[in-house]
Amino acid sequence: MNFDRIREKLNILADAAKYDVSCASSGSDRTNKTKGLGNASKMGICHSYTADGRCVSLLKILLTNHCIFDCAYCVTRKSNDVPRAAFKVQEVVDLTINFYRRNYIEGLFLSSGIFKSPDHTMERLVSVAKKLRKEENFNGYIHLKSIPGASDELMYEAGLYADRLSVNIEVPTISGLKLLAPDKKHEDFTKPMEKVKNEIVRYKSEQKIIKNTPKYAPAGQSTQMIVGASGESDKDIMYSATYYYKTYNMKRVYYSGYVPVTHDSRLPAIGSQVPMLRENRLYQTDWLLRFYGFSVGEILNNQHPNLDMDVDPKLSWALRNLHHFPVNVNTADKRLLARIPGIGMRSVDKIVKARKFRKLNWDHLKKMGVALNRAQYFMVCESRYWERRDLDAEKIKGMILQNSSGKFRNQYSTQLSLFN
Amino acid sequence: MNTSTTLIYDGSFNGFLTAVFVAFDEKINVVDIQKNNQSQSGLFSDTETVFTNVEKAKRVWNGIRNKSYNAISNVYFAFLSETEGVELMLYNYIQKLMRAQSGKCLDYSDSTVLYIAQLAKKVGREKHRMEAFVRFQLTKDEIYFANIEPDFDVLPLISKHFRDRYADQKWLIYDIKRKYGIYYDLDHVEMVSLNLKDIQHNKTVKSNAFTSEEYEYQTLWNDYFKSTNIASRINPKLHTQHVPKRYWKYLSEKKEAV
Ligand code: SF4
């Protein structure tokens, strides 16, 4: 192997791939049955963290950054003057295996610019995955970011070797797509998604009858949207996210604050700030929809098309709906407990378990890790002391912000801390 | 009245379980359970030395496990924390557990139960960190070698993870602090002790114990790590929160290029 040449390629092709934020290696259950190499950890493992605190668990690279298309938001677009490179299929295989054996990574995240045609490109991606599985007996994690417009046949084959498949929608609205990615049609994204969804459904039902049905994308499919590139509202983003979750059984939708990479009048200028707080608020909302039993219309609607940047979306919802509060933590059902600001799903479980033994007071709740500075305005417990003043939303918000400025200031810079 | 007794055991987990067995069996009023190399006799208590007995240890193990899977792993994890005085805490914990109707009804507002659970959690976190931060280097005799200095004695806990994952390569993970390692020879894992002249951390000096390719791959990995950064998103505080500085020594991506 010519290491110098590989080094050059790796620098170019890792750099071009880094804007894809998804790095999950979780959700697959591939085991190492044949004394081969690797397995997938159900929870996923972060082997390192980037300087901005994102998990590094996969070798995330492009097969090539040559591209025949010209999507405005993308560094790899045809009209951009950047160094280009292309890996050979075997080179990607060798890199993956050697990194994996040293415990650097959980597996491979492979994507590509489009050379010649979508199918031509997709075929190469599939052959990397196939080689890893068939020739190297590799059971680590493989995520193939599929090429919009790839054929059903290739999407089928991809799922046989990959743990996860994704097609990035990137632009959340159809009008934005026309403006920023004129070479692509909406169907180029949705058709592969539809195929993957159907194959997963088929796999799951066949698996019940025939034990050794070949696996198909056991970690499901995901997609990514760029935030802040095309003037969309938070409502636009979350409504389309909800649509993709429902229609295509997405495992995850990722939100990626747009990092300006180009001078283009259609886009924010180079040097504009990356909307990281907004990105964080969107993830929090996504969390509320998936795990806390909220529906999207409760959080975002025509009156409130954008998320509150000062406070998290659950607190923001609670402040608009004070008539649901205070909730009694010793009697309320799980669904209501989960709606109290400052109480996360873990605390909900702890509360439900502990209150079988005794009525809970402030002290108990504090020990369980409930964020009382927020929760205290929305709940009562076994104590004579609770917030009796008839405070309005603005007042409560003010007091919470005052008492937790440090913590909230933190959230301006973090993507990862969600709720507690 | 029962006189109070300090039990002395050999420091092994089986030894500890044997001590628990003896205490229950002979209805001893236990004031402390200590390792034999660090025992201090109390003024008003007797000491009794317990000889490790795998059969007895197994009976305690099964007894706890039958109550709750969660409890047995809590006991084992907390024991490996090597925290001073953990044995007595564990003894109290096991007493409570045995009195409870089922392990599921353990009361988490009880301070002993909470303490053991938290301790076990800390050890669990260290286990996960080691599974993530071990960096193998390939030696000339084709063994993937790594050394670690974990806060707690986690080698017994991480063994399965590495055996399952790296079933087709020989590997050795060595705990420098506790001076023993685990070695997988393509068939099974065994404990080894080594005479390491030279601790192979991420030194900036190349060692000829390793293949020359080894350093090429480290360079590629370092390059890769650098290129994952997006300059406009840098957040050093969040970074050290995820990778506390004391772990940096393991990570080849954190060392200056060789
Ligand atoms: S097709 Fe993909 S790689 Fe090519 S310019 Fe568009 S987004 Fe970038």
UniProtKB/TrEMBL annotation, chain A:
Listed cofactors? [4Fe-4S] cluster
Instruction: Report domain Radical SAM core positions.
Output: 62-237
Q: Which GO terms describe its molecular function?
A: catalytic activity; iron-sulfur cluster binding; metal ion binding
Q: Where are the transmembrane segments?
A: none
**Gene3D superfamilies from the UniProt entry:** Aldolase class I, Photosystem II 12 kDa extrinsic protein
Ordered alphabetically, the record's keywords are:
Iron, Iron-sulfur, Metal-binding, S-adenosyl-L-methionine
Q: NCBIfam families attached here? A: rSAM_link_UDG
Its recorded name reads: Putative DNA modification/repair radical SAM protein
**Classification via InterPro entries:** Aldolase_TIM (IPR013785), DNA_rSAM_put (IPR023874), Endo/Exo/Phosphatase_dom_1 (IPR051675), rSAM (IPR007197), rSAM_sf (IPR058240), RuvA_2-like (IPR010994)
PANTHER family assigned to the protein according to its UniProt record, in alphabetical order: ENDONUCLEASE/EXONUCLEASE/PHOSPHATASE FAMILY DOMAIN-CONTAINING PROTEIN 1, TYPE II SECRETION SYSTEM PROTEIN K
Q: Name one Pfam family in it.
A: HHH_3
From TrEMBL, chain B:
Q: Which domain of life is it from?
A: Bacteria
Check the record and name the Pfam families matching this protein.
DUF4130 (PF13566)
The DUF4130 domain is annotated at 86-253
List, alphabetically, the NCBIfam families matched. Answer: SAM_7_link_chp
- What's the protein name? DNA metabolism protein
